[in-house]
């Protein structure tokens, strides 16, 4: 009887949760997101702040895609792997669309029964918080949500997030009801990029990420049956004050590894779906379970992929080879599973190592082994490991004595089902001359399964230089470790040696792009005989028997090397093959080594960080510890509190500074603190008060929702306004009703909104001018630039004579920024005009005959016949306007300059030169540029006639000069003429026709001829100039790589860093602003593009992408309207005109090694750029036209110079130097030097405003 009762209890305890265990939600309680796809809530002000990874947030956004965010909303689904660009809490981040079905509810509450439920969740699972008393719970609930498509009726998800806070510490509870996670990604069309699989976890503002088990994989469907509190479908985490070295705090007595091991020791009925892949079956054995892929799929059962479907592998490679650093070298591989072909490429490799890296073909052969075509009963690497394994290769070159060690970690599938890996390479390899083409013949490699989960291989590979005939022999010893299923009984073929047959090898190095390529076709088969069955008895200590051909060899184990047929320890510390941190010491051990952080640092030795002085500093719970190099750690009270940091109390005098004009400041009865209270007839939180509206309820049982808390009341409070024209409707289960004065309206995304009726708005204008978000003041000096302090009767007597900052007549804005009105022109670009939309908004549109965004407009190339059009274009009517315009002929498309180029003309990543063709080599599946018959050259940069150049033929135009080039002679038109050198015509410029210039422009001689330039105070392309508008100011622009931020000089709870542009795969490095047009320019080294956007993030576009590779530094010459940049891959200093995009390479390769920062001084006509070449770091300078180049500072003054900036008030160049860990300045004329800051960790970006210096730091 007792045993029966116990079984029943266990079954009941393990049952998953249902919707009944959600926190109270739904109709009559919550606010609701409008229906649609890309929708988010307005900013929701929190009554009780939320502490999230040490940061305090007073507002939150609810987003459609299963995620809550701080700082900004996420209205668009970002199809990328975490992290997201903003601090986030994701319950089930995926591409949700509620247009047809599903609802998203949200609210903040302090109801007693809700607080009690939250209190139990915390205290029962975090025993150190036995006395934790929450004061607020923010609840967000997704009910029956799905994605767009024809299958939405059948698959719906429901889940909930509860943020539990007491103002100083925060917990998050995630709830997933049984059977209510029915889809994990939106179905997409074949051939397109699939949506990322659903992700769940937390993203901190500093970039830390914690994901739930299974996040981003097919296993995320098991989130309903897993738990971290032994209650399937429920998860509780502490996310408030998390140490910098931590990512999350889990409940007591929870260990995910132990939970996974325990699952595998159960039966298939109990945990099969939790262990096996969606396309696998579970098999019970005596001690536990194993998984086997279904028919039509293959893998190890935990990971399965569809037969014969191509796959990608990607990752990064770091390390040191031949004393040359490898920093995040890209590894990309493409696998054709049907026949075992693999193509692997390394990009962004150092040019000095490019040809030599062909010798590391083992990087490609591992991918080949992983997906080799199995013959007979043999299994390839993926069938054994599922793409989750560690690989080590020791490569020895006996002729030169070079040795290199490769350590790889294959970490399985990512959110797009691609295989990911990390690679570390250290040692030396023979130097292969640049331009050499290596080849390796077909070969066989033996793979010995030493024991389950351990494979070793020994082989010899011979490489030959096809040009010189030189041979390179390498001896390769490889070790693979993985986790096999330990419960299956051994099979007859389980430990038989395997032979990998590698054919159709291809090696290559492309100087354009610094790309190394490896290509192989691979098959794997089992050996009939096992020579090690006898041979392993002959191997000594620290060695293993490995099959080699029909025989065997004894191979030293990892960490040992052969010495007269004995295996002795390798001293990795002396050999330099360790991966210890720069701030750690290496200690050799028998067969291994250990990294230990030095004094003053902490970590695992592989990664060491400075020990924070704040560790032992005790601050008040309402304060934060700040590092102070001069005084030591200092406690600083949080905003809204005052004191010495070790003791902080509420700053009562500041509590009512943001009261609504329709509110009064008085002392609270319950807390004895001051706060804002709405006046009679108004309702709200005191900082935002709206007039109370009494309406008849639509349904008798309808209850209302309070902005701050949910309580039982009969008043109806409208949701927060999006702006003055559009607000959200009040929605219940049956319909949405607009507030009085608003009418129902659907936007272009089919979202339910309410639009302001066209009442007389003039009386509202003054009142709206003094809204609750405006800045208080006593005099004009208290307000931002161009704003004034105004006083109004709208303020109550409790305002103590305070006024509000407003924009005066002639200016417009929100008083934080007041911009001079420009009238009906609204600062449009040339060939554009301003129109007034129905909503009263002024926007720029291109004039008739032009196309563009209103700021950059290009001619439509109107025409009457084909002779009016350029090459590869013809005159035909435009479908939208019926106007005859020049359009590209079939097979051609317009580029950024409106030239018609061949559609898809790139040849394996290159653009073939004139007189060259793109040829295809079917044997190696590679396309390449090759000069046409009768021409010589590399096919990419140029192809010139054989034996008939102008030095012999004397066939140049009379206005051209026969000029020697690198390999031949070429006709070049003289100054003032244009053409190909054989035909030269006079240039049409303003020297000959002054009317080409605008009335507000001058014709000036430049290095490229005569050009129209707008006069001071005007901007444009010289042909069209307009008066410069006043732009916003008083902020910084910074980047963390994925996002570009606008950062106010003074960060407050109301003004904080806001992203203006984000991209999942973007790496923004060089940044500058064009203060004349209010544009921000930045270089994206990942996207190989220079981009730009307006100060507020609008008008985003790609400025330059053609022939841009890695724009690390960027600077804007606002006077001459040019952008200068450094390209660290092309090794160039380049310039392009902002208006015409005409560009020029000022310097290329010669004397350039690692260019980074660049700065422009228009007044002196100079450019400066840094070069952090470790062998000879320097800062160079030159005139803007490329003349008078010289070294401004050499290695005696700089070590690792990064960004540059001009100190305008002192006329000097300043720079951040990561080698000296300092910020320094040098007088441009006097060369007088000053150190601004020292002991910086790793300074990078730099900006100067008056006497204040700002810099970013990569490490802190």
From TrEMBL:
InterPro entries: 6-blade_b-propeller_TolB-like (IPR011042), Cueball_EGF_LRP_Nidogen (IPR050778), EGF (IPR000742), EGF-like_Ca-bd_dom (IPR001881), EGF-type_Asp/Asn_hydroxyl_site (IPR000152), EGF_Ca-bd_CS (IPR018097), G2_nidogen/fibulin_G2F (IPR006605), GFP (IPR009017). Its main location: secreted. Disulfide bonds join 869-886, 912-929. GO terms for biological process: canonical Wnt signaling pathway; cell-matrix adhesion. PROSITE patterns: ASX_HYDROXYL, EGF_2, EGF_3, EGF_CA, LDLRB, NIDO, NIDOGEN_G2. One of its GO terms (cellular component) is plasma membrane. LDL-receptor class B repeats lie at residues 1078-1120, 1121-1164, 1165-1210. GO terms for molecular function: calcium ion binding; Wnt receptor activity; Wnt-protein binding. The keyword Acyltransferase does not apply. It is found in: Secreted, Extracellular space, Extracellular matrix, Basement membrane. It comes from Danaus plexippus plexippus. CDD domains: EGF, EGF_CA. Keywords: Basement membrane, Calcium, Cell adhesion, Disulfide bond, EGF-like domain, Extracellular matrix, Glycoprotein, Repeat, Secreted, Signal. The keyword Membrane does not apply. This is Nidogen. It holds the Pfam family EGF_3.
């Amino acid at each position: 009887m007792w045993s029966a009762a116990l079984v029943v209890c266990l079954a009941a305890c393990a049952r998953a949760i249902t919707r009944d265990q959600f926190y109270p939600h739904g109709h009559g309680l919550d606010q609701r997101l409008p229906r649609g796809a890309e929708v988010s809530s307005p900013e929701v002000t929190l009554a009780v702040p939320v502490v999230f990874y040490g940061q305090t947030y007073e507002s939150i956004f609810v987003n459609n895609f299963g995620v809550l965010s701080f700082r900004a909303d996420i209205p668009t689904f970002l199809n990328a792997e975490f992290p997201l660009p903003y601090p986030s809490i994701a319950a089930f981040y995926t591409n949700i669309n509620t247009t047809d079905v599903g609802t998203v509810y949200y609210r903040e509450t302090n109801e007693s029964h809700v607080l009690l439920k939250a209190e139990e969740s915390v205290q029962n699972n975090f025993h150190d918080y036995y006395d934790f008393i929450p004061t607020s719970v923010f609840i967000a609930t997704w009910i029956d949500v799905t994605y767009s498509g024809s299958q939405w009726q059948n698959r719906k998800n429901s889940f909930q997030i509860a943020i539990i806070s007491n103002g100083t510490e925060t917990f998050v509870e995630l709830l997933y009801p049984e059977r209510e996670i029915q889809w994990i990604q939106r179905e997409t069309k074949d051939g397109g990029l699939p949506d990322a699989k659903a992700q769940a976890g937390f993203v901190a503002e500093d970039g830390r990420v914690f994901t739930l088990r299974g996040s981003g994989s097919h296993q995320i469907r098991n989130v309903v049956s897993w738990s971290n509190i032994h209650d399937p479908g429920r998860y509780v985490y502490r996310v408030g004050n998390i140490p910098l070295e931590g990512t999350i705090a889990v409940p007591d007595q929870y260990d995910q590894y132990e939970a996974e091991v325990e699952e595998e020791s159960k039966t298939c009925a109990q945990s099969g779906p939790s262990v096996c892949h969606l396309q696998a079956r579970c098999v019970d054995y005596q001690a536990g379970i194993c998984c086997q892929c279904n028919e039509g799929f293959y893998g190890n059962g935990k990971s399965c992929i569809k037969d014969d479907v191509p796959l990608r592998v990607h990752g990064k490679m770091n390390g040191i080879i031949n004393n040359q650093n490898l920093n995040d070298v890209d590894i990309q591989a493409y696998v054709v599973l049907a026949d075992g072909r693999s193509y692997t490429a390394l990009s962004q490799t150092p040019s000095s190592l490019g040809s030599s890296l062909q010798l590391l073909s083992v990087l490609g052969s591992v991918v080949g082994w992983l997906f080799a075509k199995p013959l007979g009963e043999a299994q390839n690497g993926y069938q054994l490991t599922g793409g989750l394994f560690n690989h080590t290769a020791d490569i020895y070159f006996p002729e030169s004595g070079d040795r290199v060690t490769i350590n790889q970690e294959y970490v399985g599938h990512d959110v797009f089902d691609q295989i990911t890996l990390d690679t570390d390479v250290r040692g030396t390899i023979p130097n292969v001359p640049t331009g050499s083409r290596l080849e390796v013949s077909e070969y066989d490699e033996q793979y010995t399964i030493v024991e389950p989960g351990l494979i070793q291989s020994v082989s010899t590979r011979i490489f030959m230089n096809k040009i010189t005939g030189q041979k390179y022999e390498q001896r390769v010893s490889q070790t693979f470790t993985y986790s096999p299923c330990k419960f299956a009984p051994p099979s007859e073929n389980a430990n038989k040696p395997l032979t990998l047959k590698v054919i159709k090898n291809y090696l290559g190095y492309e100087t354009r792009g610094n790309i190394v390529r490896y290509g192989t076709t691979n098959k794997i088969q089992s050996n009939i005989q096992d020579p090690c069955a006898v041979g392993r008895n002959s191997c000594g200590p620290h060695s293993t028997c490995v099959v080699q051909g029909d025989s065997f060899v004894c191979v030293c184990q990892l960490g040992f090397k052969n010495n007269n047929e004995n295996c002795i320890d390798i001293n990795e510390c002396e050999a330099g093959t360790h991966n210890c941190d720069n701030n750690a010491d290496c200690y050799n051990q028998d067969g291994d080594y250990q990294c230990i952080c030095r004094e003053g640092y902490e970590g695992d030795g592989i990664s060491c960080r400075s020990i924070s002085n704040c560790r032992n500093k005790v601050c008040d719970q309402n304060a934060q510890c700040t590092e102070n190099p001069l005084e030591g750690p200092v406690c600083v009270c949080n905003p809204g509190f005052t004191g010495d940091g070790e003791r902080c109390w509420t700053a009562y005098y500041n509590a009512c500074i943001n009261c609504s004009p329709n509110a009064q400041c008085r002392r609270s009865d319950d807390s004895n603190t001051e706060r804002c209270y709405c006046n009679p007839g108004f309702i709200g939180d005191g900082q935002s008060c709206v007039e109370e509206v009494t309406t008849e309820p639509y349904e008798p049982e309808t209850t209302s929702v309070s902005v701050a808390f949910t309580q039982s009341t009969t008043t109806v409070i409208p949701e927060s306004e999006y702006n003055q024209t559009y607000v959200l409707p009040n929605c219940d289960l049956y319909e949405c009703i607009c507030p009085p004065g608003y009418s129902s309206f659907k936007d272009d995304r089919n979202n339910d909104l309410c639009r302001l009726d066209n009442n007389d708005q003039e009386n509202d204008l003054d009142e709206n001018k003094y809204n609750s978000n405006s800045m208080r003041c006593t005099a004009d000096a208290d307000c931002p630039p161009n704003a004034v302090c105004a006083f109004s009767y709208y303020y109550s007597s409790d305002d103590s004579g305070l006024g509000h900052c407003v924009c005066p007549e002639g200016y417009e804005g929100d008083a934080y920024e007041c911009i001079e009105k420009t009238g009906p022109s609204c600062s449009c670009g040339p060939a554009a005009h301003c129109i007034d939309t129905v909503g009263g908004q002024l926007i720029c549109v291109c004039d008739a005959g032009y196309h563009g965004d209103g700021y950059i407009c290009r001619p439509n190339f109107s025409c009457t016949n084909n002779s009016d059009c350029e090459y590869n274009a013809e005159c035909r009517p435009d479908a939208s306007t019926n106007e005859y315009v020049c359009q590209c002929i079939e097979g051609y498309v317009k580029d950024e300059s409106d030239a018609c180029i061949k559609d898809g003309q790139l040849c394996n990543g290159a653009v073939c030169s004139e007189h060259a063709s793109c040829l295809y080599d079917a044997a190696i599946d590679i396309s390449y540029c090759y000069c046409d018959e009768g021409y010589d050259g590399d096919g990419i940069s140029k192809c010139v006639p054989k034996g008939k150049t102008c030095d012999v033929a004397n066939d140049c135009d009379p206005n051209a000069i026969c000029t020697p080039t690198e390999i031949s002679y070429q006709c070049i038109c003289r100054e003032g003429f244009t053409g190909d050198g054989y035909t030269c015509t006079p240039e049409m410029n303003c020297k000959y026709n002054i009317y080409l210039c605008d009335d507000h422009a001058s014709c000036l001689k430049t290095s490229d001829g005569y050009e129209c330039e707008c006069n001071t105070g005007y901007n444009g392309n010289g042909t069209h100039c307009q008066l410069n508008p006043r732009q916003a100011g008083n902020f910084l622009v910074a980047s963390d790589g994925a996002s570009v931020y606008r950062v106010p000089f003074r960060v407050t709870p109301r003004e904080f860093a806001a992203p203006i542009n984000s991209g999942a795969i973007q790496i923004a490095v060089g940044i500058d602003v064009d203060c004349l047009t209010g544009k921000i320019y930045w270089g994206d080294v990942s996207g190989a593009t220079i981009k730009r956007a307006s100060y507020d993030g609008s008008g985003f576009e790609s400025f330059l992408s053609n022939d841009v590779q890695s724009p690390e530094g960027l600077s804007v010459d606002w006077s001459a309207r040019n952008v200068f940049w450094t390209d660290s891959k092309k090794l160039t200093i380049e310039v392009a005109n902002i208006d015409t995009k005409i560009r020029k390479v000022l310097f290329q390769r010669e004397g350039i090694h690692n260019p980074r920062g660049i700065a422009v001084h228009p007044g002196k006509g100079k450019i400066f750029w840094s070069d952090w070449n470790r062998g000879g770091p320097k800062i160079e300078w030159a005139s803007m036209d490329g003349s008078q180049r010289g070294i401004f500072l050499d290695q005696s003054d700089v070590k690792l110079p990064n960004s540059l900036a001009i100190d305008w008030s002192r006329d000097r160049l300043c720079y951040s130097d990561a080698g000296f860990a300092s910020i320094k300045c040098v007088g441009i004329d006097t060369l007088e030097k000053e150190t601004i800051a020292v002991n910086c960790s790793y300074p990078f970006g730099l900006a100067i405003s008056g006497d204040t210096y700002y810099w970013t730091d990569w490490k802190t």
